Structures are given as structure tokens and as C-alpha cells.
Amino acid sequence: MGDNGMTATMIQSVTLDDANDTLVILDQTVLPNEKVFLKLKELKDIWDAIYHLKVRGAPAIGIAAGYGLYLGVKASVAATKEALAEDFKRVKEYLASSRPTAVNLFWALDRMEARFRREQGGSIAEIKEALRQEAEAIRAEDEQVCEQIGRHALSLLEPGWGILTHCNAGAIATAKYGTALAAIYLGEEQGYGFKVYADETRPLLQGARLTAWELQEAGIDVTLICDNMSSIVMKEGKIQAVLVGCDRVAANGDTANKIGTLAVAILAKHYGIPFYVCAPLSTVDLQCATGDDIHIELRPDEEITSKWYEKPMAPAGVNVYNPCFDVTDHEHITAIITQHGISYPPFADSLPAMFAKQASGT
Fold first, then answer.
1. CA distance 202 to 55
2. pTM listed for this prediction
3. Which residues are the active-site residues?
């Protein structure tokens, strides 16, 4: 509880009901009008939940993938470890096909595979139990990571600041706290009194439907703005810092995040406002040299033309370009905040240093 007498209330968006072989997720596609928790048993339904953004946010996707892989393998009737390995491979490849950009998806699946390989000396039942433990560890560690990111980010902020955020990198996108919103929650507990401005984030409106909703639920001062209003609130002096999450960080510091992030970064640089990317190290891909190497997912046309309207709001048959992400060039980024500290330019040097800190346990 903070100086303001309030404790922010956060919702767990991804959990495991192991007794019923069920993945429980908050369906983020129906927010803010409904708060629905889906109980998913079938692998195809878990795949569908990831693909259709019912579960979203890079860390939450990783958590869901870990649980999904465990449940898929748990359901295997393989009588030999060789047959179980074939089932594991099939389930992993199927889940990996759901989202091509979010590196946490592949990170979690690879981590589960590493645990699977380490447990080959045990029985089939023991292997399955080890996978459950690993999936639970992914979730628990993400909660800790988010809190650490939040504490590092909060050290860069001052009480009373106006904070602009884009998309949703909050509690419902992670195990708890969020990445970009972690400092907001921790600041609320300490009486910082931030005023948050949330971009609506076209075309899927994650800022309007999710960020504005979860911050309002938590009792945090939040104002919703259209994406094209970011420049005016910056010019009027309402914004002192920008906090965003990301789905992948390249070795040179280029970051892929929800479409529109690049425009916010360019505006922030123009107005001399610090632009901070909040990302767990699992999102940093040192094998990806630059943002040019990041695959950008294209989404369905109807997300722009008709999804949110009673009637289509674009002429029938018009050409549509709907990239899910854009890449913010590293020169627009003030710092990348990880659980192991704050990475400053040149990122090609400072990001590997974060991995060295992780390896040393510091």
C-alpha cells in the first residue's frame, strides 16, 4: 500500500487449472464490455486464442504457449518416450505457427523443449510433470521480471509526470504488473500520482479497450487519446516520458512493437521527451542483427474496414495494408529497460552486457 492509501488491483490473464487440464485466459477481444475468462482444453482452441489475440502481449503469449505445450503433451497417449517425443515435436510446431513475430512464443517453446530433453532419464509421467513445473516457472519468473523492470523504469521518472503509452503492455499482457505499465502500478503504490495518456492504438484499439480499461480498473488516472493526438499533448507539455513495450528487440536496439510506435518515437525525439522501451531479456534477440530482419505480420483487411463498425467504413474492395507491427529505429530510443538494468546506446554493446549480468546472476 502506498502513500496515497491505494493498492493497484491487477488481473491475472493467464492461469492453469491443472486439475481440469484447462488453460484459463482472460479473453481480451471482448474487453472492455465483457470480462470473460475462457477455459481451453483443446490444442486448437489454444492456438486460436494466441492467433486471434484472445491472449496477447509478448510475455502472456509465452506463458500461454508454455501451458499449451504442457497440456498438449499431457494429453498424449504415447506408450514410449520415442512416441512422446514425436508428439512433443508436433505440438510445439503447431503452437509455433500461431504468431510469427513475438519472440517470447518461440523462447517459451524452446525453453520447454530444453526441459523435455533434460528429463529423458525419467518416466513418461515424470517428463509430463517436469513440463508442468517448467510452464509454472515461466509464469512465476515473468511476474518477478515485470516487477524488476518496473523498479528500474520508476527510477527514471518523477512524481506527477505525464506518461504516454501505446498499445497495451500492462498486467493483462503479462503474468503481473506488465512491462511498460509496471512503473505506473509501482508508482501508484508509492503515491507518485502519474497522469497516464493512453493512445487508442488503431486498428485493434488495445490502448482504448485494454490499457484504459485496466488502469481505470486499478484506480489510476488515465486519459484516452486518439493516436493522432500524441503530438498535441506533447506540444502542450502534458507528457514528460513515453513508456512502451515491445515484441522483439534486435541486436542493434531496433524494436518491433505495435503499429504506430515508430510515429510516437519520432514525435518524442522531436519534442525532446525520453522514449523508453520496457522489455524482458527474453524479448531481446541477439541473433537478429537489425530491425530489417524482423518479420512483420500482416493482419486481415477487415480489422481496418469493418471490425468495429455496424456498417463497413471503407469502400468495398479497396486495397488495404495492415501490418501488425512497425520497427522503431534504435536512434529514436532513449533506453531499453530490462529486468537486469537500463540499457543505453550504443545498444550493440549494452544489450549483450545485460545477458552477461543475467548469466552471472547479478
1. 18
2. 0.84
3. 247
